[in-house]
User: What shape does this take?
Amino acid sequence: MDILIKDALILTQDARRELVRGDILVQDGKIAKVGGSIRAKSEEKIDAKGKLAFPGLVNAHTHIPMSLFRGYAEGMHLHDWLEKKIWPAEAKLKPKHIRAGSMLSILEMVRSGTTCFNDMYVAHMDEMCKAVLETGIRASVGHALFDLVKKTDAKDELKKGTSLAEKWSGKSSLLKISMAPHAPYTCSDGLIRLAKDYARKKNLSFHMHISETRKEVFDSLREKGKRPIEYLDSLGALDSNTVLAHASWVTKRESALVGKAGASISHNPVANLKLATGGICPLHEYLEAGANVALGTDGTASNNCHNMLETMKFAQLMQSHLYWDPLRVSIQNIWDFATINGAKALGFNSGSISPGKEADIVLADLRSPNLCPLHDARNLLFSLHPGNITDAIIAGKPILREGKFVSLDEEKIIVEAQEAADDLVSS
Amino acid sequence: MDILIKDALILTQDARRELVRGDILVQDGKIAKVGGSIRAKSEEKIDAKGKLAFPGLVNAHTHIPMSLFRGYAEGMHLHDWLEKKIWPAEAKLKPKHIRAGSMLSILEMVRSGTTCFNDMYVAHMDEMCKAVLETGIRASVGHALFDLVKKTDAKDELKKGTSLAEKWSGKSSLLKISMAPHAPYTCSDGLIRLAKDYARKKNLSFHMHISETRKEVFDSLREKGKRPIEYLDSLGALDSNTVLAHASWVTKRESALVGKAGASISHNPVANLKLATGGICPLHEYLEAGANVALGTDGTASNNCHNMLETMKFAQLMQSHLYWDPLRVSIQNIWDFATINGAKALGFNSGSISPGKEADIVLADLRSPNLCPLHDARNLLFSLHPGNITDAIIAGKPILREGKFVSLDEEKIIVEAQEAADDLVSS
Assistant: This one.
């Protein structure tokens, strides 16, 4: 279906980072023309007068089924919360729960301007893949692998990841499968090597938690004689298809390793603050090293939402705080992290509104008191909220139009998510 | 006008901090009954099925006309930004600008659940008072006083504050006038004493910036031999009608002075991060000392929005970060800061949904993907956003109903704000 978006103010995120006024023509799911007045026969016209168009945001690290635990058992320390609440509830996870939580989170993401996400979770991942295809969102999905905690055999554990890849890779241009060993402290070196070898052979993304807490770093130094990213590097796991979640407690030597490999990090500021990890990811050092910096919300249990607009603001402000300098990481940097860098991290041809790119486009209504006055649209980053998002188009298909989902039954998905959540937390 | 709000989930913030289901009866602008099924003849029924009712939020420190500078000249260091951009623009401020910025900010506040604010600004404050009465929001408003910077006579400067008070005090139960000497480094000790004496005599609130930056503290120690709050204490300016904005760079001795006086602080976490002050206000110490802690957004030029829901999340997460402990300042604390404590700071009989209180009530639609599932409504603090707010009632009068302003012309106010902003920043 062709779409002509008329009269928008366009935050293009193109190579020149231009802000332009005018139309956007979408053909065959891709962006064909941008700016000025475009004449075309189109099946669907979208009036974007008074609206800001920007590339759909990319959430580079999350666990979407965990939305069922949003606001469950707050006010506990991490260890108690996991042992007494989350793990017992997770032990009950059935396919219907994964489906319900995934569908709920996808609604929430689209409503807050996110059109692509990167996930790893622990069970029934077919249901997440189905939810991606059913909703039409873009995603990279992996089965979280652990062999140390569960004391399983590395090769058996690996199969969870490879069978997901075999089943779903190539099924849709919207869905990629990643290899996702959970973390260096839950995976053996054998499993990490096997997962990376498989990812390299099949050209898949490799997604892993790393250096989230100070304890993890100290344990790694004591047990392996290396800091976590040095250890990953020694296993040959760093390259341009690697996405490291958190990567907060790092030395300059480690950020340099990430940059040299052309790897990506997903910085998740809200989750870091909420779990009181104490670490603030040194984004300036990563940028200097040439690393690809993206942003994520992390799962809702540690956030508690999938609001990337909020994450973008937290990211910029925490960097201002970290460096005592509001200019070290700029507003333009943050837009880059959440759009083109996120897409690059996951290997999608999206993240900017420029010809040839996948048409993942979001509209926000500028006629909102929090977005007025308009001085420079990029700076609206600090006041945009999900209530301003009216439309979302993914791969050229309108998913949200004028605040309503085109074909998803939002009410039903919410009711089913509540039922699934009640079921999980009942004793 | 009587109002009967039917079938809400009510986050009461009453003395027992109860969550109850049922109705709320509002009579003569006050809350008459709460909970269960209430039968009454009412002029207006509000169906709140599927909605959360909570006390309207109190923004305890802001400068609302500055919304005209939202997103203007970002990416500059503070000194350049003030000297090259803000001060030249502020020098052009006419009554119409104060009106336009005030009206815009009030719309933004109401849409994000705020029903009361505490302001000080530099010019044409009659226009802000008029905007308060015209819109029906609740506010404490002061003329910011400076005698050191402008080298004016303290008594002449004081008159700006006292004449505002003489003109507007008692005009409406919605509007209070405060005495607002800007800061210890912009006001002489004489002006501070005069302002506090007048406030005490007339039972007015006393609103002042303090200890926002490390430099301010060091300068104070060097010039006065005292830290800023010690200095204020020595002038007799601390009591239960005092609201200190920021108060971040403080010693335990200073937080104890604030607590002993029963004074209030307005913590403004977003502005502190944005201006990269480096200071995180030690709320746990203030609470231990018995101080009244409230929250504010600060002006939009340093935020860039009036979204108290966001400020509440920043506040909790920054305290988790500061103490490396997510429980030191609880979610319940944060609700208290933004409701009952804010009302107490400004001397209003509001901030909870309990009989006898002013009826300042906000409704949020729980049938939103970011507010599902419902485990404990208090924990929705971390995912609530302005798009969820459907209704706002202030002093028993519906201002916002089902997402629309009842009698304010939102479109016109936005257009006028854009014109006023363009006028200010044009050269």
Chain A touches chain B through 73 residues (CB under 8 Å). The first helix of chain A runs from residue 78 to 90. The CA atoms of residues 297 and 308 of chain A lie 6 Å apart. The mean pLDDT of chain A is 96.
